[in-house]
Design a protein that fits this description.
The complex is a heterodimer of chains A (408) and B (269). Chain A has 408 residues and is of the alpha/beta class. Helix content of chain A is 25%, strand content 34%. Chain A folds into two domains: 4-244, Rossmann fold; 261-390, Distorted Sandwich (Coagulation Factor XIII, Chain A, domain 1). Chain A is globular. In chain B, 79% of the residues lie in helices and 0% in strands. Classes of the chains: A alpha/beta (408), B mainly alpha (269).
Chain lengths: 408, 269
């Protein structure tokens, strides 16, 4: 039985609101309450076992950030008890404690000291921090001379080298771009393999479901549901769809540009790249297609380049509806397809949707180039093409499922 | 009995929590001091020497004005320069600590708003640099003017002064947080206080009537105690009692207000 590393008993967080500024001062002087409370987090009880990967989902304002800040120690609980057995490191606001006039070296020691490391502990971690950040020649320079990328790398390196028992990640599974993004992703995966406890808060439901052992769904400061990722994410997705239905459905953004082939800028060397993407309907290349439901062949051609020093990537194609929600997807990893490349590490693959089965509506295609585990996103190509599907039949819904009627 | 125990506990905490923080968070306090020196001296020619040079220049300025321009001389007691330095260095230390304390929370808000920063270290961070700089300056100056024994006594002056001003520091930090004008007006009030305190002149130069009111000014008591202790003259016991009484009077309110304010600062800034 793994030991409990985090326990919350009736933990809540409320923010004080005062009618007049002086009321806060009077409250401090007299000790008598003069405020109204706004509950960001209702009393919440939770036990997290060592090594668990917990996903946190919820709409903006649901209390996700408040919960993470309580765990990270940047906020104090209003009621209840919070016990954490181990060191917490948070990838929340990287580099927030850096002082621009101090050198990278001194900022490492300052940040580590704020995290509670002694000088000797920081001494022991220093070489690894510098090595991972990859800026050894800049460590004696004031950080005000650093680029934003260098700052991010140093801050991420510190956050993940203070030997945390609990890692808190808000939104992104990787930071920076290009090669460092992949390295930072690998670093987080190392924590997972090492059995560290991870709190992962993200709007990327796919990543939450793929990565987490348990998911908490917060709504209006309360746990609406928690448990197995597939069940909670399904419930949350349905909730989001209901919310989207209440709001006026937005028209999908028109696929940008008129060129039928989306040429993707090659920005980051050393990591896999999408070279170009094109969409054909019955062999006709265009950016915006009009097609008949269940009658046309839709083909997505993707050219990509792998990286020599990294495992072969995987590719995913997503079809989004008019309100931006996912309608369908296909992925090489999920379908057991291995990509192949030539001597120049470039390759191409075509995804085919015969008798395109979606019913009438406007759809947009997106293409993802992902790591070999299908978690880290190297490249996301938005609005590859727009498909305006028309329909003569009276079928209802989004998709026409393959079906047979058996007369008895 | 319980009330007494609670009061005793509060008194103990009010001194030990803020002053014990450098021991509990030694590495952090050291780096914050480094951060402050970098912020103050970065890009300057003298660099890290500035914290030492600055009080020296101030003393030089006062000495020039009062000893040279106004030609003030002692009346059979210590020399004016000696009198000026023994009083001015502790005063500058106190003035720097209190002036800075009004912006204490805002100065460090970038750290505690986004990281698990232990707020209890803040008062000690304000005390460390003035404490080291002015203690060193006072000990060296006293040793140079009055010999080794006086220098050894001088070692205690700044630490005791800072311990005494701790409740004032906490109160100024709280007031400065809620009343931002306080940070602007305090330097003026401190300057005024300096002029009504016998630092730049001997106490017996004040008119008889003014001297009768001097006991209302705790800084005048400090000057009397410092000069008495370091020059081996009389340490007025009444001054010691008044200072101790005022310290005890302010200690609990200062600590309680500061402690309650800590619950608000992360939300407020």
């Amino acid at each position: 039985m793994p030991e409990t590393i985090i326990r919350l008993d009736g933990v809540s967080k409320s923010y004080r609101s005062y009618a007049r500024d002086i009321d806060r001062v009077l409250e401090i002087i007299t000790g008598k309450s003069r405020h109204q409370s706004f509950n960001a987090l209702e009393p919440l009880s939770l036990s997290v076992a060592s090594g668990e990967v917990i996903g946190v989902v919820g709409k903006n304002g649901a209390g996700k950030s408040t919960l993470l800040k309580l765990l990270a120690g940047t906020l104090q609980t209003s009621t209840g008890s919070l016990s954490i057995h181990g060191r917490v490191s948070a990838i929340l606001e990287l580099g927030a404690s850096f002082h621009p006039e101090m050198s990278g070296h001194d900022n490492v020691y300052l940040t580590c000291a704020i995290q509670g490391l002694t000088r000797s502990e920081t001494d022991a971690a220093y070489a690894a921090i510098v090595d991972f950040a990859g800026i050894p020649d800049f460590m004696q320079r004031a950080v005000k001379t650093y680029s934003s990328g260098m700052l991010m790398r140093l801050a991420f390196s510190i956050a993940t080298h203070v030997n945390p028992d609990i890692l808190i990640i808000d939104e992104a599974l990787s930071v920076g771009d290009g090669v460092f993004a992949r390295r930072s992703f690998d670093r987080i995966m190392e924590f997972r393999k090492a059995g560290k406890t991870i709190f992962f808060c993200s709007h990327s439901l796919y990543q939450v479901e793929a990565l987490c052992d348990r998911v908490l769904w917060l709504d209006q400061g309360r746990i609406k549901s928690q448990g197995a990722p597939a069940r909670v994410i399904t419930g949350y997705s349905e909730f989001l769809q209901q919310q989207a239905a209440i709001l006026a459905p937005a028209e999908p953004a028109a696929a940008s540009g008129a060129a039928p082939v989306v040429a993707v800028a090659t920005t980051h060397a050393g990591v896999p790249q999408v070279l170009n993407v094109s969409v054909r309907v019955d062999g006709r290349l265009a950016k915006v297609h009009t097609l008949q439901s269940c009658q046309n062949l839709v083909e997505v051609d993707i050219k990509f380049r792998a990286a020599a020093n990294l495992p072969m990537p995987s590719i995913g194609v997503v079809i989004l509806g008019g309100d931006g929600r996912y309608i369908a997807s296909a992925g090489t990893l999920n379908d057991g397809i291995t990509l192949h490349t030539g001597s120049d590490h470039s390759g191409s693959i075509t995804l085919r949707f015969p008798d395109f089965p979606l019913l009438k509506g406007c759809y947009v295609l997106e293409v993802y180039l992902l790591c070999e585990q299908g978690l880290h996103i190297y490249e996301r190509v938005r609005q590859v093409a727009e498909l305006n599907v028309e329909q003569h039949s009276l079928e209802l819904g989004i998709v026409s499922l393959a079906h047979h009627w058996l007369a008895h | 009995m319980n009330l007494l125990l609670r009061l005793g506990r509060l008194c103990f905490d009010s001194v030990c929590v803020p002053l014990g923080a450098p021991l509990r968070h030694a590495s952090l306090v050291r780096m914050l001091v480094k951060r402050e020196i970098a912020a103050r001296t970065s890009g300057t020619l003298l660099g890290k020497l500035w914290p030492l040079v600055q009080p020296g220049l101030q003393v030089l300025g006062f000495w020039f004005m009062f000893a040279v321009v106004y030609d003030m001389r002692s009346r059979g007691g210590p020399s004016f320069l000696q009198y000026l330095l023994l009083g001015m260095l502790p005063w500058l230390c106190l003035s720097e600590v209190l002036s800075r304390s009004t912006g204490l929370f805002r100065e460090f808000s970038v750290l505690f708003a986004r990281s698990p920063f232990p707020l209890e270290v803040l008062p000690s961070v304000v005390l460390v640099i003035p404490g080291i700089v002015y203690s060193t300056a006072l000990v060296l100056t006293t040793g140079w003017m009055l010999g080794v024994v006086a220098a050894l006594k001088a070692v205690l002056v700044i630490p005791l002064l800072l311990l005494w001003c701790l409740p004032l520091l906490l109160l100024c930090a709280v007031i400065g947080l809620f009343v931002r004008d306080f940070g602007q007006i305090l330097p003026f009030l401190l300057t005024l206080l300096m002029y009504v305190t016998p630092i730049l002149y001997f106490p017996d130069m004040l008119p008889e009537r003014a001297r009768a009111w001097m006991w209302l000014n705790p800084l005048a008591d400090w000057m009397a105690v410092i000069h008495g202790a370091l020059t081996d003259t009389v340490v007025p016991i009444n001054s010691v009692f008044r200072l101790a009484g005022l310290w005890l009077l302010l200690l609990l309110p200062g600590w309680l207000l500061y402690r309650r304010t800590l619950l608000h600062v992360r939300e407020l800034l």
